[in-house]
Amino acid sequence: xxxxxxxxxxxxxxxxxxxxxxxxxxxxxxxxxxxxxxxxxxxxxxxxxxxxxxxxxxxxxxxxxxxxxxxxxxxxxxxxxxxx
Length: 84
Description:
This protein is an alpha+beta fold and 84 residues long. It has one domain (4-65). 37% of the residues lie in helices and 18% in strands. The chain is built from three helices and five strands. The protein has helices spanning 39-47, 49-53, 58-74; strands spanning 4-5, 8-10, 17-18, 26-29, 32-35. The strands form two sheets. The protein has a three-stranded antiparallel sheet with strand order 1-2-3, with no helix packed on it. β1 and β2 (8-10) form a beta hairpin.
């Protein structure tokens, strides 16, 4: 969802504020333009726009960003098999 406040748009992938005037990372989906902070966010959106256009509250966006940060630091979580 392209939410604008004071000339800024929210990146639908990570939730960062982006200036539509100063970025060239733009994608159009169903006639609406979406702006991105980084190329990786734009690529993720273009692979699956529906995933990122679902409405989320502030807590949901916070958890997504926290998960993304943890994956950068610790790597992706792996399934742990129970000790039998």
